Amino acid sequence: MISYPAPDQLPDDQRVVITGFGLTAPNGNSPAEFRAGLLEGRSGVQDYEIRYFGKTLAGICDFEVKRHQTRKDARRGTRAGSVGIYCANEAILDAGFDLENLDKTRIGVYVGVTEHGNVETESEIHEIKGFDYDTKFWSHHHNPRTVANNPAGEIALNMGITGPHYTIGAACAAGNAGLIQGLQMLRLRECDLALAGGVSESIHTFGIFAGFASQGALATHEDATKASRPFDINRNGIVVAEGGCLYTLERLSDAKARDARIIAEIVGYGMNTDATDFVLPNSERQAQCMRMALGRAGLKPEQIDVVSTHATGTGMGDTLEIAAVREVFGKSEKTRVNNAKSFIGHTMGAAGALELAGNLMGFSDGVVHPTINLDDVDPECDMPQLVKNQPQEIGQVDYILNNSFGMLGINSALVVKRV
To answer: Residue 378: phi, psi to the nearest 5?
Structure first.
């Protein structure tokens, strides 16, 4: 095991803090709305229909697109770009910055995505089918809409940012990966301010629904709000959702110099690979990833107050993750375990960033949001620390560990500290 210096022993210009964040989720378009939804038990999942696939369920966002974007730019761009633009601008405002007074050559944009471009290609094929596939009817916007750097690039264009921008393709670990990338770039002094996190437009591509359905992994329920039910014995799959969350990350020295409100410090992270299966997770590697994050943070498992799980509502996925969580945190009576997908569905590339956001306010109110829809907990997924259906007041939250895992065996865990 590699030995790391304790985060509080690092110089301030190597310590990275969160000073603002903006988000849109199926049950809220601001940090306060999202947190209220989690504490009130309010689901954002609803009935949904998409061409070719038909009726299904989804987590759908309803944010004000034109708050930070013209109608023309929204039509030219992508849904993922609009989500990112909304979140990035809200994050800048939340952090107390005046964008026009910032050195935009020193801002980096690091956006995690699960996949990008399928929506646009499917839409163009659908359109030209009516013209006997004559490519003169193919949109000239298709290529810039589908390039892998698109969501981050649309944010940079919208905000006039001339520093580095790119997306991080890390399947459903991408939200955490975006934050980790932002932290690393700040430490390397490649930027002075990072806009980092993840976005998803996945509900707009029928291929996502068809793929999960063919795997037998797409959730169904007569009540849409009860369809996403990680750890419940009657869970039957994933609810696909859209959303996004981007954070302003700064070096602690810079945040102190401007007397910024500091929401949290990123003190540890881990990323590794299962290398065992395309889809099926590896519990041993997930436990290893969490221990890696704890090691970087210089923490023991019993110091973590909240573990935010990745669990998506699939049979084996939930069971294997809980096995990993038990292995690392099973002896920690202090640690609470929760899940945000039960409220909003699986926001894919945004999941890690959004789910972290759902717990961050626990630093100020000392409350842990629950996992909802736990009518009958699967014995294989149960553990005493699981917060079920109702919030728990625990007095003080000091450390949160945020899990986010993805296909092809990519794992990530992030540890943040109350400041």
So the answer is: -65, 125
What's the rounded mean pLDDT across residues 234-255?
98
What is the Cα–Cα distance from 319 to 3, expressed in whole angstroms? 31
> Based on C-alpha coordinates, what's the Rg of the chain?
20
Residue 143's pLDDT is 96
Residue 330, exposed/middle/buried by CB under 10 A (0-12, 13-18, 19+)?
middle
Residue count of the chain, please give it: 419
Per CATH, 7-257 and 268-417 having the same topology is answered yes
Q: pTM (2 decimals)?
A: 0.97
Under a CB-based contact definition with an 8 Å cutoff, are residues 38 and 354 in contact?
A: no
What is each CA distance from 247 to 24, 195, 214, in whole angstroms? 12, 5, 35
Query: Under a CB-based contact definition with an 8 Å cutoff, are residues 293 and 415 in contact?
Result: yes
Count of CB atoms situated within 10 Å of the CB of 98: 8
Is residue 326 within 8 Å of 386, Cβ to Cβ?
no
- pLDDT tens by residue, 255-311: 999 999 999 999 999 999 999 999 999 999 999 999 999 999 999 999 999 999 999
CA atoms of 321 and 317, how far apart (whole Å): 6
Q: Among candidates 172, 185, 246, which has minimal Cα distance to 404?
A: 172
CB 308 within 8 A of CB 400: yes
CB neighbours of 119 closer than 8 A, spacing ≥ 6?
78, 79, 80, 201, 204, 205
Distance CA 218, CA 225 (A): 15
- Transcribe 256-305 into DSSP letters: HHTT----EEEEEEEEEE--S-SSS--HHHHHHHHHHHHHHHT--GGG--
Domain boundaries, the chain: 7-257, 268-417
Short-list 171, 53, 68, 175, CA closest to 112:
175
Positions marked catalytic: 172, 310, 346
Distance CA 332, CA 343 (A): 26
3-state secondary structure of 87: helix
pLDDT digits (tens, 9 = 90+) for 65-82: 999 999 999 999 999 999
Q: Which CATH superfamily is domain 7-257 in?
A: Thiolase/Chalcone synthase (3.40.47.10)
| pLDDT of 149 strictly over 70 | yes
CATH code for the structural domain at 268-417: 3.40.47.10
